[in-house]
């Protein structure tokens, strides 16, 4: 998949934006009295289906932006799988809220994006070996 026409600064700014968004959705705050992170996804899942659908749209935006950054189709499918599992299981009353707090689909997806970018960067830096 071709990388969108981002210059290096725009690309870095976009990645930072996606990191902040994933943090807001999955781990922005701590549950009082614990070290357990929670974000809007866990809070919104208190309202089954509706809350998870709203945060699912934002999670899908993260995947869309990953596609614009050139993430391969196989990785995008894994990312969409994370979003789908988060939405489906997260929509179950009570259990889904607990699942959302633990699963952190958006953090997982940002890890996949970072891994892709590191592989891409490594491939660009790696010198070509010539046979003598």
Automatic annotation (TrEMBL):
Entry keyword set: Membrane, Transmembrane, Transmembrane helix
Keyword set includes Membrane: yes
Transmembrane segments: 38-64
Name of the molecule in the record: DUF4112 domain-containing protein
């Amino acid at each position: 998949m071709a990388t969108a026409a981002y210059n290096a600064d725009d690309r870095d700014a976009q990645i930072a934006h996606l990191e902040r968004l994933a943090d807001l959705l999955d781990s922005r705050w701590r549950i009082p009295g614990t070290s357990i992170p929670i974000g809007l996804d866990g809070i919104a899942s208190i309202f089954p289906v509706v809350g998870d659908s709203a945060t699912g749209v934002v999670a899908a935006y993260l995947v869309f932006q990953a596609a614009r950054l050139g993430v391969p189709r196989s990785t995008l499918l894994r990312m969409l799988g994370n979003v789908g599992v988060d939405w489906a299981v997260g929509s179950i009353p009570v259990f889904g809220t607990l699942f959302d707090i633990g699963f952190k689909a958006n953090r997982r997806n940002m890890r996949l994006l970072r891994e892709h970018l590191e592989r891409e960067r490594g491939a660009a830096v790696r010198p070509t070996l010539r046979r003598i």
